[in-house]
Design brief:
Strands 3-2-1-4-17 form a five-stranded parallel β-sheet, with helices on both faces. By secondary structure, it is α/β, with parallel strands linked by helices.
Length: 479
């Protein structure tokens, strides 16, 4: 048998031209065709399951070589290849179209890819996305659900999920597959959490999220929107009706900067700015009556993924945009791909600038931001970032709109529940993600502060397993 030729270069995915995409909210990355996906799948070295570092790097532990193998096994039958690959992925992840788009694969599954020792690492995220997209477009996901759902052994025990974001949706999906009666309580009028209100359409189309929500409903998950736990219903009331509760309420409380003028009009938290544009369709004004007036000059403060989303959104709304960050470029926490896309779209970056004052006009609207210039030190903090100090020198940049993207903290309504231990704004949990209240579990940003979608999903999956073990023990004790 002739040895298979090693393909060292990654097969790229087509993208919208930057000159065109800054005028629309259509998806930037266009994804693989079956032919391109096949070529990329052929590059995989097929590491054994017990060894594969890509699986170990995945927070939800998808059998990555396994699903890629299915794409290769049925190369003459695309529908069969995708169906079997999706079956493998769904065993661990019921939201692959989402994770395939927004996961920082370069820091997780792809980070230790063995292929990276001799060439480019396998483009795992784009292959996962291809499987999910192809299945959705051809109706293969519905066909697979028709096989899976009738085989679920239904249980009488009920679980309440607080929050329809990545952690809550994942926990709900895993528990539903185990047969539990699952109800999600979501505060907003649409489910999806950060997937719907935080991540822009050009990175994660809302139709994709809605289809994956429909998958959960088909598995038996009930989703109740416009239910604010802490007001509409309390955690104590949920515990009277449900056998266990999972808190996946996210980090919905934005952090602001303690500086003069921060309350001027035209200054947004990234949370409000992106919610208006994404969930309330501000970019379709006057069709939707929720406009965001960005003006000609926008400043985004921060350098994480949320900051990139805000900057690229403001750019599409017509502003010249500067991302101002108090540290240097090497300490930017956003994904490299998102930074490169932002630069391609004309976003400018200014480093070592720390905001100290927001300056307003006679009408109370922001017109400029005064920054202190910072300088790096040799020492690094606990996160490995260079420490910085002020220089005493200042610079002022004009701005019609300012978006503050420096992080968020956990939902304060739930965190104030009597008996629920909270530390530094996040809910305390044990090694099984159980909180200080028996039968109440938590995960995602509610216990981490602001983190990635896939880490939240990893918590959701871990919590589902812990809830299953807890309820099984409870059921056996009452038998």
């Amino acid at each position: 048998m002739m040895a298979r030729k090693l393909i060292r270069e990654r097969i790229p995915t087509p993208e919208q031209d930057p000159k065109e995409r800054i005028f629309n909210f259509n998806e930037v990355n266009l994804g693989y065709t079956f032919e391109l996906a096949q070529k990329e799948a052929e590059r995989c070295l097929q590491c054994p399951y017990d060894y594969a570092p890509c699986i170990k790097g995945c927070p939800v532990h998808i059998d990555i070589p396994g699903f890629i193998k299915k794409l290769r096994e049925y190369r003459e039958d695309p529908d069969k290849a995708v169906k079997e690959a999706l079956r493998v992925i769904w065993a661990c992840n019921t939201l692959p179209a989402t994770t395939g788009r927004v996961c920082p694969q370069e820091d997780q599954c792809e980070m230790n890819c063995v292929m990276g020792k001799v060439g480019d690492k396998i483009n795992i995220g784009k292959l996962e996305r291809f499987v999910a997209d192809y299945a959705r477009e051809k109706g293969i996901d519905d066909e697979l659900l028709s096989e899976i759902v009738p085989k679920i052994e239904r249980k009488s025990q009920k679980v309440a999920i607080i929050g329809a974001g990545p952690a809550g949706l994942t926990a709900a999906g895993e528990l539903a597959k185990m047969g539990y009666k699952v109800t999600i309580f979501e505060a907003l009028h649409e489910a999806g959490g950060v997937l719907m209100y935080g991540i822009p359409e050009f990175r994660l189309p809302k139709a994709v999220v809605k289809k994956e929500l429909e998958t959960l409903r088909r598995l038996g998950v009930e989703i109740k929107t416009d239910h604010i736990v802490g007001r509409t219903v309390t955690l104590e009331e949920l515990l009277e009706e449900y056998d266990a509760v999972f808190i996946g309420s996210g980090a919905g409380t934005p952090r602001f900067i303690n500086a003069p003028g921060v309350n001027l009009n035209g200054i947004y938290s990234a949370n409000e700015f992106l919610t208006r544009v994404n969930l309330m369709r501000a970019y379709k004004f006057p069709e939707y009556e929720t406009p965001v007036k960005v003006g000609k000059k926008g400043i985004v403060i921060g350098a994480g993924n949320t900051a990139m989303d805000a900057a690229r959104t403001a750019r599409r709304l017509g502003a010249e945009v500067i991302v101002a960050y108090r540290r240097g470029e090497e300490d930017v926490s956003a994904r490299e791909e998102e930074v490169e896309h932002a630069k391609e779209e004309g976003v400018k970056f200014e480093f070592f600038l720390n905001p100290v004052e927001f300056i307003g006009d006679e009408n109370g609207r922001v017109k400029a931001v005064r920054f202190e210039k910072m300088k790096p030190l040799k020492e690094r903090d606990s996160r490995g970032k260079r420490k910085i100090v002020g220089t005493g020198k200042h610079v002022t940049l004009e701005a019609d709109t300012v978006v503050i993207a420096i992080g968020k903290t956990a939902n304060k309504l739930i965190a104030s529940t009597p008996g629920l231990k909270v530390k530094r704004g996040v809910i305390e949990v044990d090694e099984n993600l159980m909180t200080s209240i028996e039968g109440v579990f938590a995960g995602g940003d509610a216990i981490r502060g602001e983190a990635t979608v896939i880490l939240a999903m990893g918590d959701g999956r871990k919590a589902a397993k812990a809830i299953h073990e807890y309820l099984t023990k409870k059921r056996d004790e009452n038998a």
